[in-house]
Write a structure and sequence with these properties.
Blueprint: H1 5-15, H2 19-39, H3 42-45, H4 48-59, H5 63-72, H6 76-86, H7 92-111, H8 114-145, H9 151-206
Helix pairs in contact: 1-9, 2-8, 2-9, 4-5, 5-6, 6-7, 6-9, 7-9, 8-9
Length: 224
Amino acid sequence: MGFDIGLIINFFNKGGVFMYPILMISIIALTIILMKWWTLRTKSIIPKVFTGDLYSLISQGRLEEATGLSMREDSSIARIALAALSGNHKDREELRENIEEAGRRESHELSRYLEGLGAISNVSTLLGLLGTISGMIKIFDVIATEIIVNQQNLAGGISEALYTTAFGLSVAIPVFLAYKFFSGKVDDYISELELEGRKIMEDVLATRDLTPLSPDEAPSGITL
């Protein structure tokens, strides 16, 4: 069966004016979903090869090489590591603040646009409801103004109510699922970054012959 553009045009015509804003926000949602799918890959956040090489260099006291490695790597953990390594001459509290600040920046970057997906899911549902109300108004207007109800006019209002509702929900449901999926991934990544940030901090301090960190001194700024 070939692609029939006429069916799509007919679908939108029957749904009324509210079909078009729903279509517009669905395109925005799809753009955000594709972007988050690309940016939330593991190798963009915590690549295992990089962390293995990083910890090996730090444990050997080769901090300059570890710094260079972090500068060449484009990932969240590399930027957090760079914040720790570039401040390795600072005291413990300043080093912790460096890592926390880097963690906050990465948390913000990871969660960027996610609330937009949640908003689109809600707005799509509301636009569908608004289309339903618009269709119902047309139905009652036909009933109120026509002594003998024209079935075609009545059907137009019913079509607008049903088509807009269906289209709004067909956008809202998958967008909401995508929002929950990506939110879960971001939460998992942030938890991992907290652990890795603590480990990097401990290893850097160990190369300076400082005492181990207490649990209260672990970086805590990597939060949503």
